[in-house]
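Q: Could you fold this chain for me?
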Amino acid sequence: MRISPHRCGGVPSVPIDVLVSNAGIGLIGAFEATSLAQARKVFETNTFGVMAMTQALLP
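A: Sure. Below is the predicted structure, expressed as structure tokens.
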């Protein structure tokens, strides 16, 4: 698999065999004290971040 340089920040195309998605963010505290903005940030980072990276690497 090859990624075009414009899709990976100008890094030359290199073969990609595995994507390890082990980064994410979380919240500590009471559920009822969590704002929708905080919950949305966690969801968008942990869900759409993985989705975006996976789509970027797929042909």
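A (continued): The chain has a mean pLDDT of 81.
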